[in-house]
Amino acid sequence: MVTLDEAHTASFYSNYIKGNIYHWSGIEQLMATQDIRSVEDLLSLLPQKFRTIYTLIYRSRSLQDASEKNPRVLLFSENGLVLSFNGDPLQKNYNKIEVLSPSDDGSQISMKEIDFSGGRPIVHNNPVSCTKCHRVDSRPIWDSYAIWPGVFGSFDDIFSEKTSPPQEKLAFNNWLKAKESHPRYQKLVTPQYESAIKKDTSQNIFSVFPFVPIESFAKIAQYFDYEKLNSFRPNLRLTEILSRVQAKKISSKNSTKQKTC
Fold first, then answer.
1. pLDDT bracket for residue 201 (50, 70, 90)
2. What average pLDDT does the structure give for the chain?
3. What DSSP string describes 139-200?
């Protein structure tokens, strides 16, 4: 299994991956050119930047099971590509990555399933198991701002005694403690922004990454630009991205109808 550090990322993707790794074409070429035989193998080959923006679902409505101890991870890119996986071999669809993939022109959204049950990945395009809920035209299913039930950081991406479910922060802290020894969750990256922050605030700001400790909200807004700030607001960011993806698809569909009239 190949694991990339940042020093080798640029040359690896320029030499092997002709498509954009933040689009489905890049993921497809990655699987075609590398010896990938598991969810962990694929995660190891994704750029660190990709593995920095994610959210965690502990009560799933998807075909992938989730729990507080082994949540379902949604990795996502700015263009709307979403990859999801869970963390316990006993969970349903443990050996699969579910994918939501917008087309390059934004006119379509497709659902895919990467199945590693037999080792080498097998891709199923728009399987009935997905379209049953997401429909044939593959609409994203995600709650609106600012409450995301069953997702860590469920109220506005902030852990607060006043607004968060009582057990949510405790469950998340327990997940954080186990994260670095977990074969999949350890692939998720905490960004190295500390150089821009005073040492005495750094640990506090990253204490519940990728979410916001309520006492550090003002500090985070002070130290980071918009892109870096997004890393601390994954539920809000995913809401914005999926709304944009769906809007583009609807706009494209309406434009096509007008041309045929």
1. low
2. 83
3. ----PPTTB-TTBTTTBTTEE-TTTS-TTHHHHHHHHHHHHTTSTTGGGS-----GGGS-HH
